Amino acid sequence: MTQKAWSFKAVDQDDLRYHGNTGYHDDPTKLYRYDNFVGNYTNVKEGDIAIITDREALLGIAIIESIPSQPYIKKRNKCPTKNCTPKKINFRKTKPLKWRCSNGCEFHEPLIEHIDATEFIAHYGTTYKELHGISMDSLKTMTPRFNVQGSIQEVDIEWARNLLKTKDINLLPTEADTIEKPLDATDGRLAVIRQIKQRRGQRKFREKLLVKHEKCSVTGCAIVDILEAAHITPYRNDSHNDISNGLLLRSDIHTLYDLNLFAIHPINLTIHFAPVLLESEYSAYHHKRVNVKHKLNNPALTERWQLFSNMHGFESQ
Questions:
Q1: DSSP letter string over 72-127?
Q2: What is the pLDDT of residue 180?
């Protein structure tokens, strides 16, 4: 059976915009609940990839392990006005008449209709992983028949598979190690020095890059103390320590690179930031040419560019 990928819009009961149904109180990291009134309900299969979102952002990605089903009675809210068949019903907390339908009728309580339905529950097991730094615009681009009201929509399978491959490097902006016990002053200084050395990279590799150009390849920053040696493709063996596979990056830029939030175009060597950063101070470097004095490894740039493009829904060329 051919694997497919789907976006699941997880809307909590308290976040419903239109109250034609009652919504769900579920844990989106473990399961997704839907019924036979939802588009694509017959197409979702075990083994498919699920990208879970809310209204504003991508939450995570998972593999569907099982989809049990069962009959249930679906509650649907209707306008009580005779012969009125609105598309939407809204609940308004601050109005005397709490309910209003899209045809303009206002009322205290909706008419509740009970319908025979089939409920499906897509379980992820332990496969769920959080996603960060992937914009909703990227998801929309990778959804061939995107519909703003769709709860389940098919997503480009290759893009989804690449998200699965790279999901482990996505971190929350607030995510960091916790200090299990306080350090004394000497231990603290030694720990800081160790961390700085680790971030600067292998000494010889960094020194070779500094000899070529003592500036950040993106920002032009010339403060050597905060310049770090970054590998274009991850270090695997000594062959990856050739400076053609290296960039000198300011420490914050290095972190963004590790998170695949920017990449360098392999043909014109221009810098491209992820959509989530285009309204930040980093946009000043967007589409600028990388600032290096040594030849860069084109296959390495191409590999990294394709990874970045797949993550953020860009064309790879």
A1: EEEEEEE--STT---S-EEE-TTSSS-EEETTS-EESSPEEEEEEEEEEEEE-TT-
A2: 47
